[in-house]
Design brief:
Chain lengths: 385, 385
């Protein structure tokens, strides 16, 4: 496959942007990425979004944004894979440039979620699960994750408090990310006393929703070979895999097979091993997903993911730095945008732009975006050259 | 770009499939295409759909269908470009195979629209228009097309009855297509007396919605060079273009610039001219769109598209055969599936499988799928070899 470089990146803060429309949020990230790339045109636009039809009454976000940002006449489409929409759009853009049919693409992940009441958003998010066999039975998305977390704790003997380091690390890192939704340090005590959402998931196990957009401009790597001033960030690997859509259909609901499949393919493509990954932006929608992601991707043995947090290995100075800009937990989780935030954040690490949460000498980073409860997982490995 | 062949095609009838779920309809078309291709696995699944989040409460149709049809572990995503979702998914699949990252793909366009009340469907379809600047003002999709048709009649001096041949041809051709929604011949008299929907669009200017799915299996062309028994159908060109999302933003609302742009690019890629196109499956959601499509794609001069119908040039025996399987008007318009029906139907023509509406010696065909009121248009040229 043709080698692709990330020429520019951009993002908005994740927040309750009640003063900005869907258009304005997506446009802001798009323009930031174009400016960072020094580009005034691209051949095509790929938009990752999950909820605009349900929350904003707006479909066809490809044309919606190509029109708004002035990419008239260009190709534009929307990709949806629930909370994995952002990385799915990035991968679709990669494929298009790699095919040789186009020579540049802008990928935008965007979501505006806070203009509706909470129960409407909960119902909209449930469309990621199986409508006939999960949602019809009354289960919500957090409910599904709570069942998985209960089983994990029972199976491997962990207590709820053992998950605290995941959230503490995410909140600590977000303190230094101006784009993060939450700027608030937390402690083990606060984690333990936080309000219950769905046993055993409490408020500090769960990521906050939000409005936000993140974007990147991609081009064939040979076109930026000589770019001065900062390392060239290239896509060393891209892979996507699925599991069953319903959690109850899985042989082992505690194993993220699609994370395993897509990460394995990426390791082979990039010719690296987990130990070579300097930074891993994983999909910590709930603290249980952090443990399962670390295990499925080869950073910990089955049932031992929690140990990495307890041993202080996950901080920017640790052996397996995760959520270095706050992760879903504290940067926030504007669902269809999240995958692009992860790509942008890994690129920032590889460029050495992360200040107090910079991972020293990071040359290889991985981003992993999950749609549904592990149903669709897209993994990318980026490299600084 | 790597040359791609269509190895297999499949479709369900377009109907009110109240006895079948979204899963079953999509699965039926997918299995038909896989069987026709003689394939039991593909590397990836691309699903085109517009309305499932709004009508069926189901997002993430990629994994939803990869799970249902047994493509476990494989990659699967959904593409949405309003009524252009089907062809947008086909193009995304083409790009992925052309990139060399995957070696085969199944593309399914699917829509289940008839389980909701008419006003719900009308509201859901309006999400293809501009939510802030069109829909908020109370305009529906048929309303937008009615304004365009009024202006066209005023500008170029045509009467409503002059559009009758488009609908008559579509209905006549659908008589011989077992998958068509309507099997009912119509006359000029009936066309003239049909119930008004939004002046000047009456019931026989408008395509019926429906439930349906159509699918194709695509692979690199070199893999089927020696396939026996029927001509190899290859993709000679693929292009996608956008216009403004709102009709009122266009300099000229009577010109489908995205049809022009994408068709022009396809003619160049395939090295053909309009006169070389033996069959043209265009997007006749409303009769006015037929005239505008014929003009933008170079089959008629500006304001003269209607003349092709009046001169009897659009029938299977004519100079510019269109809607040879019934078109949106009579095969039906299950919105996110329509683009894949068009691909399947052009492939059927190139294989010589269309019986009484077969275009003699058809070797080159074009399919054109429109999202919104001309906002996003995807064109493909297929060739029999």
């Amino acid at each position: 496959m043709r080698k692709i470089a990330i020429l520019g990146i951009g993002q908005t803060s994740v927040d309750e942007h009640w003063d900005k429309s869907l258009r304005e949020i997506g446009g802001e990230a798009a323009f930031a990425a174009m400016q960072d790339a020094g580009a005034d045109k691209v051949d095509a636009l790929f938009v990752g979004n999950m909820l605009a039809p349900l929350i904003d009454g707006q479909n066809q976000l490809g044309t919606f944004f190509s029109d708004w940002i002035g990419l008239w006449h260009r190709e534009a489409i929307k990709i949806e894979a629930a909370c994995g929409s952002g990385a799915a759009a990035f991968r679709a853009g990669l494929m298009a440039v790699a095919s040789g049919d186009i020579e540049s693409a802008l990928v935008v992940g965007v979501e505006k979620m806070t203009d509706k009441a909470g129960h409407d958003v909960t119902a909209a998010l449930a469309t990621a699960a199986d409508a006939d066999y999960e949602v019809e039975q009354g289960v919500s998305f957090v409910g599904l994750n709570a069942l998985v977390m209960q089983r994990y704790m029972f199976e491997f003997g962990w207590r709820h408090t053992d998950f605290a380091p995941f959230s503490i690390n995410a909140h600590a890192n977000a303190m230094h990310n101006p784009f993060a939704r939450l700027h608030e340090k937390i402690t083990v005590e606060r984690f333990e006393k936080s309000s219950m959402v769905a046993t055993p998931i409490n408020l500090l196990d769960a990521s906050p929703i939000g409005d936000g957009a993140a974007a990147a401009v991609i081009v064939p790597a040979e076109k930026v070979a000589s770019m001065p001033g900062r390392p060239r960030v290239v896509v060393a690997a891209s892979a996507s895999a699925t599991d069953t859509i319903a959690v109850h259909s899985r042989k082992d609901p505690l194993f993220l097979s699609a994370a395993y499949d897509s990460a394995k393919r990426c390791y082979e493509m990039a010719n690296v091993e987990p130990k070579d990954i300097a930074v891993f932006e994983l999909h910590d929608a709930f603290s249980i997903m952090t443990a399962l992601s670390l295990e499925a991707c080869g950073f910990a043995e089955r049932g031992k993911g929690v140990r990495l947090g307890l041993d202080n290995e996950i901080t920017p100075a640790g052996r397996v730095p995760i959520c270095t800009r706050g992760g879903l937990k504290a940067r926030g989780h504007p669902v269809g945008a999240t995958g692009m935030y992860q790509i942008v954040e890994v690129a920032q690490q590889l460029r050495g732009e992360c200040g107090k949460t910079q991972v020293d000498g990071a040359k290889i980073g991985m981003a992993q975006n999950i749609g549904g409860s592990g149903a669709s997982i897209i993994t990318h490995i980026l490299k600084a050259e």
